[in-house]
Amino acid sequence: MSTSRLTITRRTALRAGALLPTLAMPGLLRAQPAAVKIGILQPLTGALAQDGDLGRLGATLAAEAINGAGGIQALGGAKVELVVADARSNPEAAVQEVEKLQAEGVVAIVGGFASPICLAASQAAARYDLPYIVDVGVSDQITARGLRNTFRFAPGFGMVTGTALENLVRLNDDAGKPCKTVVLVHEDGLFGSGLARLLQAELPKRGFEVLETIAHPTPARDMSNVALRIRSLRPDLVIPSSYYGEFVLLARTMRQQRIRPKGIYAVLNGAASNYRFVKEFPDAAEAVMDCNHWHDPRSEEAKALKAKVDADGRLWAYNVPLNYSCVKLVADAVGRAGAADRNKVIEALATSDFSGHILPYGPTKFVNGQNQGAAPVNTQVQGGDIKVIFPDAFADAKPVFPVQG
Amino acid sequence: MYSLAIIAEAVVNGLMTGAAYALVALGLTLVYGVLHIVNFAHGALLTCAMFAVLGMEQLLGIGPYAAILPLALLFYGLGYGLQRFVIGPSSHGEDRNTLLVTLGLSIILENALLAAFRSDTRSLGGEMGFDVVELGPMLLSRPRLVGCAVALLVAALLWLLLARTDTGRAIRAVAKERFGAQLSGIDPRHIFAVTFGIGCACLAVAACLLLPTFYVNPRVGNAFVLVAFTIVVLGGMGSVTGALLGGLIVGVVESLGGLLLGESLGQLGIFLIFILVLLFRPTGLFGARA
Q1: What family does this chain come from, according to its entry (chain A) (predicted)?
Q2: Is A256 in Cβ contact with B130 (below 8 Å)?
Q3: Which residues of chain B make contact with A284, given a CB cutoff of 8 A?
Q4: For a Cys-Cys bond, which of A188, A262, B55, B214 suits A402, CB 3.0-4.6 Å?
């Protein structure tokens, strides 16, 4: 091996030396404040990779927006720098990644998506007084542990199901009570079973009769039997709580088997408010309702962001506006704290009245880490688009109910 | 209790699902029977095939049924190359190496797909998946009926190939007595690669038949592979008839179990069969004695 080509002559060294000051020039002209590092923890690989990817997209767009608008003003225009970590769809890996983010010196962590990941990661972050902002994870346990570093901007399970039941009753009453019987279809994990148990207890109190509760595994290879049972029971309403693939299979099979209930009313469903499903199977998706996270359809910033994501050929789902808003929440809190200091940021978050988000929420106010202004909305697939039908303050369409079979 | 009509429909549904399982299991059982390796990359290869079907439809406008022949040929070539130039040489004749190589291959394929297509769940859109055939009170999915028929046809062709052709005889010879086959002028490396290629071609056909009613994401193959292993054990390792019958039995058991015990508990039936077969007939229904 020859080393002669690597030899640096005195002349080259001099030339390089002459160039150096020009490289450093911008720094001399305008002292650039150190970038503020925010950790983005998402399940980028494994079973939840689709959601992790969407979450990262939202966070990236937020960082672009903040930096494009001149960075964090209170810190002399400091730029936001995202440090992305892969939670690999399991809590153990998420905890390891928190350690990495801690070593990287991030000022806060945003993300997690699934409740088990959020629970483990926020606990790990608590040891370093590292602020943790849950993007989606709905488990009510997350904010019930009294961890001062953990904040959830979005609504939790109790909030969502309460609103879902309230709006279902209202929907049915407004239409002259066409629905009396219900079949619940749910995935057999923590999320689906918990939801089904709650609905089984609450629906009879509100005048609905639950004909049957059908559990199915994830992944399910076939939904024919579930459809068969629904067909034989002839319920007025079907309430599915499943992940994306299974709900799409169910909706397709129901349509194929010509099962037309008066309504499909999903709660926190993986597909009912997903544009890919709507685009691929417009007939099966039409009129499906969901009570879920969503962006504020009347916000100009949300509309522009959605248009940008659509133009890039990317999928728009609730993960995008949620993570977008959470990253902006952190940047805002760093500004309020006046320094990228973790303890000061925690205090700033706890007293924050942040309003620069794009979600259909009331005024921001954290109590025990839960944003009291957070709320889910009811969406419905109408004419190949996803519209908000409740609450009235954010709705951009009227509900179509009961569905004409 | 359910009416007879519903139970009958569940049985037919089970048979149709079972035929798809059988097709996935055919490739697996063939590779095991001849190469004596458990191919861990089977699921990832199925996923690749499903993405290929999606690509054919979306980029070239070739529907899943028209894609069966070209994709089967393509995957035959792919499988042949994989075994001949990757799995074979890297295993150095040791079975446990092969096991690890296929496992590694599955990880590479899965993550390459994840990088290329992201983790979105995609489906073939359109009305095709909603076609039904009315048979008395039953509404049977047309694409699944077609799938069932093609799966039976493929199994028959495969059986003919193994029983009646020179290649088939060579495959069986290598499976039974590698050294003896070599002495008779058969190149085992070539036969191994041919077998692996046929296994992959089966997967390509399975993918074409599955996609009209199913979805695809980079991990979807795993959903079928565990069942396929059960079927291979049930039918007997290396047996084509066994894989076909095993697939149909597992399909019906799963379907009836799901109807009577609930979808989650219904899966128990599959594993119950697995354990019972291992206890009472370790060679499977049609397996030769070891």
Answers
A1: Belongs to the leucine-binding protein family.
A2: yes
A3: 130
A4: A262
